[in-house]
Write a structure and sequence with these properties.
Shape: globular
CATH class: Mainly Alpha
Order of helices and strands: HHHHHHHHHH
Oligomer: single chain
Length: 238
């Protein structure tokens, strides 16, 4: 639990600092990796897209101090790499958020947990499942059967006795709130606004998009942005 880096606070303008955000994501990856292969779908979605965003950040560290800067630059150049990376990064974080939130809820309700497999299955069904193809779903369902027991979860989180367990479940909800604020900001201000999600149904589809299809996405996004800007100008006049 001590190794988890907090997610940066999201101000009213929705700007998310790039480096603190990516460092927080990397700390989530390190934690999830300790659970073994069962959470690899989330690990892959987070880690792979963190690397993509880091690469984009290195192109212009001043301009891309905030994630929003990457998206503004993509609007200008009709690109979509950062937005797609943020889309899949958010999905991976949501699996982590939903799963750990369910564990916190069970603990707060005083329910005795032994087997966490039902919770990981519920979290997967509520987050990543709808974006995966048949083969990926079958692989994920197989991995879930290997999920660790609740006592192993506590040990990984550093809860070796009742006192440390209480401490974990005091800190964890606050940490999860930070993730929720970040993922909601990414969706509402970055992904949903640019309608990236409707174009990408699953990871395999993303990888097999042809250049022609990508160009079509870019044109559609540009047209949508122009419409939004026109509407915003009209609203200001009113």
């Amino acid at each position: 639990m001590d190794k988890l880096k907090p997610f940066p606070a999201v101000p009213s303008d929705g700007k998310i600092e790039t480096i603190p955000f990516l460092k927080a994501c990397r700390s989530v990856v390190k934690l999830l990796e300790t659970f073994g292969p069962v959470l690899m779908p989330a690990v892959d979605d987070i880690h792979g897209n963190v690397k993509k965003l880091e690469k984009i950040y290195m192109e212009n560290q001043t301009e891309f101090k905030y994630l929003n800067g990457m998206l503004l630059e993509e609007k200008r150049k009709m690109g979509c790499h950062a937005r797609i990376a943020l889309l899949w990064l958010r999905r991976g974080l949501e699996l982590f958020f939903v799963l750990f939130s369910k564990v916190v809820e069970q603990h707060a309700a005083g329910k005795v947990l032994q087997d966490l497999r039902p919770l990981i299955k519920q979290a997967y069904e509520e987050t990543l499942e709808k974006f995966h193809g048949y083969r990926t779903k079958q692989m994920c369902m197989g991995l879930m059967e290997k999920f660790r027991k609740y006592k192993d979860f506590l040990q990984i989180m550093g809860a070796n006795d009742e006192r440390s367990e209480s401490s974990v479940f005091t800190i964890l909800p606050v940490y999860l709130d930070g993730i929720k604020c970040s993922t909601e900001a990414i969706y509402n201000r970055m992904v949903k606004k640019n309608q990236v999600e409707k174009h990408i149904d699953d990871a395999e589809t993303e990888k097999t998009l042809t250049q022609r299809e990508l160009d079509k996405i870019k044109v559609e996004e540009l047209q949508m942005l122009q419409t939004e800007e026109k509407k915003a100008s009209q609203d200001q006049c009113i």
